[in-house]
Amino acid sequence: MAIAKAERLMNLALCLLGTRRPLSKRELRGSIEAYLEAGSDDSFNRMFERDKDDLRELGLVIETVENLDGETGYLARRDSNRLPPVRLDAEEAAALGLAAKVWQQARLAGAASGALQKLRAAGMPEAEDAFDDRHSALEPRIPVHEAAFEPLMLACRDRRPVVFQYRKANAARPETRQVEPWTLECWRGHWYLAGWDRERGAGRVFRLSRITGTVRSRAGAFTAPVPDVSTVRETVERWAGESATRSARIRLRTDCGYPLRARALSVRELGDGWDELEIPYGHGLDAWLVEFGPDVVVLEPADLRADVVDRLRAVAKG
Fold first, then answer.
1. pTM beyond 0.70
2. CA-based nearest residue to 145, from 229, 234, 206, 207
């Protein structure tokens, strides 16, 4: 459905940009296949008005002109819709080139590469070799391996509700979630979806690696307001375990768990291949500790130890 609408909008934009005189609704309907397939005049009129508003929202300047016969026509003049020259210095161009390298996921890699080509065609200077792979010791990456990423990214963009199967870390089987998606955030190498859970009537965060099966879109508008960006990030941080309110003590095998060591408040060698760490304890820490498997043993507090044990048992049950 989203692809069909995008194609229809593109065809309408090309028609409006490719003519030297205003085109009437009648002419546009006869030129665009999707409009020809509209069942009735009312259906076509509603579709056309929505498409016209969407193009204007995207930044296309569409003029409404009355021709000599008194018929209303529409035109998008090229000079009114031409972007100004791109003026970037070498450092800004290098930063954009570096940002384009971040994405490993195939679809986004292609989009990033295409965006760079368009900017260079518009006059963006070539980046220096400061970020060339041969000379750079560090290269940023944001891995995207989850199949749910792309449909959720599009759903967030288009404000479309979704339905998917989600398995919590301490559950043996997945359950159905109906969600109004807000945004995707990458945290500690994992992707999270923040959105409104319709059944629970509250904002929730879902880790993409725990979404099973296909993400399906649903028709209809959002039923809850979308919070601002800062509120969403705070929600992701809280549910991803970044809002620590206490500390915990764990045993960690020597030469293992470097992300835990980087966050440790203190480290003490125990001998026999084990260290004792004090780490911040917030929501989501139990799910993170489970990922280290037998290399981590929770000493205290007791509730954290119980949560980790429950999660490990659920994983063992499959």
1. no
2. 207
Distance from C-alpha of 255 to C-alpha of 269, rounded to nearest angstrom: 12
Give yes or no for a contact between 193 and 241, defined as CB atoms under 8 angstroms apart.
Answer: no
State how far the Cα of 219 lies from the Cα of 292, in Å rounded to an integer. Answer: 40
CB-based contacts of 233: which residues, under 8 Å, 6+ apart?
Answer: 185
DSSP β-bridge partners for residue 24:
73
User: Three-state SS for 241?
Assistant: coil
pLDDT tens digits along 230-250: 666 676 666 655 566 788 999
The answer to whether residues 185 and 160 touch, using CB atoms and an 8 Å cutoff, is no
pLDDT of residue 274: 94
Question: Which pLDDT tens digit goes with each residue over 68-106?
Answer: 677 888 988 877 777 667 677 777 777 677 666 655 554
Residues 48-63 pLDDT 10s: 998 988 888 878 888 8
The alpha helices in the chain, defined as continuous H runs, are 2-17, 25-31, 33-36, 41-57, 90-100, 106-121, 149-158, 229-239, 258-263, 285-290, 302-317
Q: How far, in Å, CA of 312 to CA of 318, rounded? A: 10
Strands (E), 198-273: 202-207, 211-217, 244-253, 266-271
